[in-house]
Amino acid sequence: MKREIIKTLDGSTTIHLVDWNESYHSKNGAIQEAYHVFIKNGLSLIEGKSVSVLEIGFGTGLNAFITFLEAQKNNLIIDYTGIEAYPVAEEEAFAMNYLAELKASDFESDFKKMHQCSWEEKTVFNDHFSLTKRKQFFQDIQDKNTFDLIYFDAFGYQVQPELWSTEIFKKMFESLKDKGILVTYAARGVVKRSMQEVGFTVKKVPGPPGKREMMIGFKNI
Questions:
Q1: What is the CATH number of the domain that holds 204?
Q2: Closest Cα to residue 115, out of 62, 70, 160?
């Protein structure tokens, strides 16, 4: 599948899959979307300083990196797990302009380490952040009551509807601890119904630039 690096409207880059007309992040702003969806409407809702995060779609590492930065800034302790069936090549990841756009050049070695560290092993970055990358299909996830927060960042329903199925959301629900949260950029009615069917209490909130709504799912609130 043909891939190209494109610049989004906030100046940050993403990878565009030409055949699908699908991108890893919003064309309206990769960094803006990541902060709005996963930090403002995800991480900031979790009480306490110690947070276990599961990311569905590790991709370019943007969501992991901004979470790493938030951990340093807010004195959090983040245990981060990223699931990715088809890892992005290092050269593609390093071609992203996130360090410059986030004014985070001091953490260049950490961003590179995220892509160079071993899969299936926990890598400790510092007292605030650890990362475990798992090369795994979402259908094979078997975690139970493990995570406080899920970043559900799979490719869109229009190209991979099977990733937004009741089966997948049942796995997500089971993976969360009691009172856990799942956050996603999606807002389709069919996705909302799948989430509700497995037990999530779903709330629609304003979406990032270019998107009217997004959803947050709560487990046993």
A1: 3.40.50.150
A2: 62
